Amino acid sequence: MNASPPTRSHRSAVVGVVLGLPILGLAGCGGGNDAGASTADRPSTSSSPSAAVTVTSSIKPGTVLGQPVVWRADVTAPRGVAIDHVDFLVDGQVRWTEDSEPYEFNEGGLFVPWPLGAGAHQLVVRAVTASGNKPEATAVVQVQKASPGRLPAGSYHRTMTRTDIARVAAYRDAAHGAFGDPAQTGPWVMKVDSAGVITLDVVPPTEYDPFYEPYRVSGKKLTLYGPALWLQPHPDQASVFCEPEAPSTYAWSVRGSALTIRSVTRECADRDSIVVGTWQRG
Q1: Domains by residue range for the chain, with CATH
Q2: SS3 164
Q3: How does pLDDT run across 208-255, given as a tens digit for each residue?
Q4: pTM, two decimal places
Q5: 156-190, pLDDT tens digit by residue?
């Protein structure tokens, strides 16, 4: 899994940091009643008269984002007009780039909104044609405040062993997205932040980590939503635990300085071989 990254056909780009992004106003934009539901009547579309290219975002103006969603750009171009790539911008900065269809943020993974912080944010999909035209679609959305009941924030460590690899062997197969070598044994560090993101680092670090895993906690249930590749320092080189890496549910408990995580669903063996176990804080 971590010996080399999977081959990818897209180009990806991350600019700047994610936490602490500027908050933009919601002028002329309505809100929604349910997380992930849009109250806007108009589609998020834009066209360039010179290129006759139309861009539509799957996230519409006025959407209230409380849950992870797929963020997709649909591009329509006349014959003879080539699309070079599509940029996805968050609050004015390019966070992801795709150069082939389907044009989906985070390589078709989920766009998890809460690392952006509660409030208004501007999401833009911008098609760049071979001739340099840049039609785009803009949506100002409202990100809901993260739910309470998170894991205790802090840094934790544990040693992953061959026993952990054997424990997940029964479902380490292509049907569950497994590929390449198993996860690397040895010391791992898990950092739980207050913005709803877990990072996992092997010790000593490699060029492919840390791995970013957005999370939510409901009572003693922990859900990991798959890789947030757009948070990676170098997403072109970023590895993943499974491909695809489906969301997965765990049970968690704390006793003293020990955080214990147990499997509930079995979606990604390599991720489970690292995450599941007892972590010591500090």
Answers
A1: 1-146 (2.60.40.10), 154-281 (2.40.128)
A2: helix
A3: 788 999 999 999 999 999 999 998 877 766 678 999 899 999 999 999
A4: 0.79
A5: 999 999 999 999 999 999 999 999 999 999 999 99
